Structure formats: structure tokens, C-alpha cells
Amino acid sequence: MRLTSALLFSAIASVSAFTAPTPHAQVSRLNTQLHVAAETKPLGKPGTAKLDTDWKDLGFEFRPTKSNLRITYKNGEWGEFEMSEDPYINVHMGATALHYGQACFEGLKAFAHEDGSVHVFRPDENAKRLQSSCERTLMPVLPHDKFIEAINEVVRDNIEYVPPYGSGGALYLRPLLFGSGARIGLQPADEYTFIIMVMPVADYYKGGLSSPVDGILITDFDRAAPRGVGNVKVAGNYAADMLPNMRSKKAGFPIGLYLDAATQSNIEEFSTSNFVGIDSENKKYVTPKSSSVLPSITNKSLMKIAEDEGLTVEARDVLLEELETFDEVMACGTAVVVTPVGSITKLGETDEDTVKYTFGESQEEVGPITRRLYDRVRAIQYGEEEDKNGWLYKIN
Ligand SMILES: *Cc1c(COP(=O)(O)O)cnc(C)c1O
Ligand SMILES: *[C@@H]1O[C@H](CO)[C@@H](O)[C@H](O)[C@H]1NC(C)=O
Questions:
Q1: Which portions of the chain are predicted below pLDDT 70?
Q2: CA-CA distance, 134 to 234, in Å (whole number)?
Q3: Exposed end of the chain (fewer CB within 10 Å): N or C?
Q4: How far is it, in rounded angstroms, from Cα 254 to Cα 246?
Q5: pTM passes above 0.85
Q6: For the chain, which residues make up each domain, given as ranges?
Q7: Is residue 4 a contact partner of residue 12, using CB atoms and an 8 Å limit?
Q8: 287 with 250: CB under 8 angstroms?
Q9: CA angle in degrees (0–180, nearest 5) for 242-245-247
Q10: What is the DSSP code (8-state) at residue 95?
Q11: Exposure of 146 by Cβ count < 10 A (0-12 exposed, 13-18 middle, 19+ buried)?
Q12: According to the model, what pLDDT value does residue 363 have?
């Protein structure tokens, strides 16, 4: 009896050792061939896709392109790239992403330069941030080089959809990674899906920064707890923000500012962008330092440019009352680079309790430092200013 089962076991083991890897090996060989074929194909031209609108009129919304890229994690390893034309994904209804929010995403852009080459802004930083989101939510880390290669592949395949130089647009890349395997008890999944979807977007400001927006202080909700997940780009953070965000908009304030959850005394960040305050007199760029703020790559880049412009950069606790010391306030993130903020209102029970902080002399005009920082980031992205810091990754 013991002998039989031992024999049976070794028979199964040897069969599976022989058969199991074979289909897998064939699949990956096939993919490698496709991959090689794609790489040797000459690079196409940006801005040549046929759209139903002008490049300048694109909004910030989904629109079909040629393909999206997918990689599946199974049996303890990441598979090969697959290019898909299907905007739908087929996932198990028990997927951990759907029930428990085991999911994260990134956002970055590709820009066409005057010579027709295409460059992605700081993908290394997105690769690192994606890894920290994966670590915090027990998802397998996508290797850095694989992330960069995937970015190259998906932009290359959709190069016609990169808005042409001069249109002010960009190809927005939205990588996402989530638990696609089923688990009903609270546990990490054993299967994951990584996708990069891409879409062309126009210049948010159509040629120049628009007038500052009015912000509101969110006083009845918190975005993130001090030791929670605010510092990683995980899906649940945005579900928590939908109600306060929509309420702010309905009240006439396009942007909401959060305070720290523990003390309600320090500024944290806006819903989906970091807070920056400029003190022009003392030539300071001030941004909150907090364990529950999402480390923005735009903020990091602006900090560097601000230093270059001779400003002193301070990343530290910023008290709410300090709002009155700022001459310019901006919200920064990949989608817009910067949104000038003209005022922030703290609603009280009565009109008398309501405080409105205003920045600069005019709430109609964009401050000079905001404008300067914005122009320089854009010039680097479009290849009009030398990329001294090596921020651009050239699609090849
Ligand atoms: C994505 C995001 C930002 C902006 O980050 P960038 O890397 O500059 O695009 C800021 N705050 C939050 C909460 C975010 O999700
Ligand atoms: C701005 O970005 C830097 C670098 O990512 C970070 O250290 C700092 O805390 C950020 N400020 C805010 C408000 O996120």
C-alpha cells in the first residue's frame, strides 16, 4: 500500500515535471518571438492616428487606442507581455481587488518632441512607487526593468496616439496592478494582473495656465490615517475621497484640501494632488512632509526646479494658520502639472465663523512663481529645455 502510493506519487511527479512546464515554455517562446518582432519593427510617428476630434479638443477621459498591455502573475512568477485590443478584462468574481481593494495604480505621460521622438516623464519614479504600493498591500512586486520595458512596449505600439508636438497634449499612461485571483477569507490572492491602458489627452489649460480655482478645507472627513495607506497609491484611498470630493464640487469648490487626521492642525494635501505654498517675500517653496501624504513625482520635480530658481525648499509640517503667509498656492500632479489655487475657505457654522484665505493680490491672475515653475516643467517634458536631471525616458 505504501509502496503503491509512493510509486503513484513519483509517477505523477515525473509526469507533471515533464508535461507541466512544456505548454508554459511554448507560450513564453511564442511571446518572446512576438516581442522580438515588435521590437525590430520601426517606430511609427506620433500624432498620426485618426481621431473623431481634434487633438486639441481631447478631454481627460477614456478613449480607445490600438492596444493595452497585460502581464499576469501566476504560480509565483510574472509571465510575458501580452498586447490586447480588448478594453474588457475577464476576472473571477471572487477577485481580492473587487472585495478587499487589493489594487493600486500609477499615472504618467509620454510627450512628442519636435523631432518626432517620444519621451516618458520619470517612469523610474512610477516603478518605485508602484513597488511600494505592492509591498504595503502584499501584492507581488513587478520588477523595475519589466515595468520600464512594459512602458516602452505599450507606447511603441500606440505611438500614433501620442498627440503631435505643438498640440500641447500627451499620451496618458495608467498602469494598474490588482489581485485577480479568488479569495473569500481575508488573504492576499495568488493571481495578479498588471495592465497599462493608454489614452491621448489634450493640454488641460489649452495653451496657458487658467485663472486660479477656489478651494475648500475638508473638515468633516479624513483622507488617510497616519499609519494607514495614504502614502501609497492604492485604490481604496480614492473611494474614501469620493463623497467629500463631490460634496466640495457641489458647493462650488473645484478642489478640496485635507488636514492631518490625528490633530486636524496640519495641512496634508488635496484629493489627488499635493499642496505647495509659495512665500514670495522669503523666496520659499513650502510643502507638507507627512507619512500619510502621497509622494507626488510632480512635487518632487517642482522642488528641484524651485531650488534651481533660487527658492528655498522646505518639506515640513505646515500649520493651517500658515495659509495666510502664502502669496501663491498650487496643487500639483501629473494630470495638470499645477493647478493654481486662489483661495481656500474654511466653512464655519455661521458666516462669521467662516474663514477665507486668499493668495496674492488678485484671485484672477496666476502668480509669477507658479507660472515659472509650470513653464519650466512643460519645457523639459516637450524637449524645449535641456533635461539636466535625466528625467526623460526615450521610447525606442
Ligand atoms: C497621484 C497622486 C498625486 C500626484 O502624484 P504625481 O506623481 O505627481 O502624479 C498626489 N496626491 C495623490 C493623493 C495622488 O493620488
Ligand atoms: C512633495 O513631494 C516630496 C517628494 O515626493 C515629498 O517628500 C513631500 O512630502 C511632498 N509634499 C506633499 C504635500 O506631498
A1: 1-40, 207
A2: 9
A3: N
A4: 9
A5: yes
A6: 22-201, 213-381
A7: no
A8: no
A9: 105
A10: B
A11: middle
A12: 81
300 C-beta closer than 6 A to ligand 2: yes
pLDDT of residue 40: 62
Tell me which DSSP letter residue 271 carries: S
> Which residues have C-beta within 8 Å of that of residue 364, sequence separation ≥ 6?
211, 212, 342
- DSSP for residue 25: H
Q: How many helices (H) and strands (E) does the chain have?
A: 8, 18
**CATH code that applies to domain 22-201:** 3.30.470.10
Note whether 171 and 158 are within 8 A (CB).
Answer: yes
What top-level class would CATH report for the domain 213-381? alpha beta
Q: What is the DSSP string of 174-198?
A: EEEEEE-SB-SSSS--S-EEEEEEE
Give the ligand at the shortest distance from the Cα of 109.
Answer: 1
Cβ(395)–Cβ(110) under 8 Å?
Answer: yes
Tell how far the Cα of 288 is from the centroid of ligand 2, in angstroms: 7
- Spacing, Cα 96 to ligand 2 middle (Å): 30
133 lines ligand 2 (CB under 6 A): no
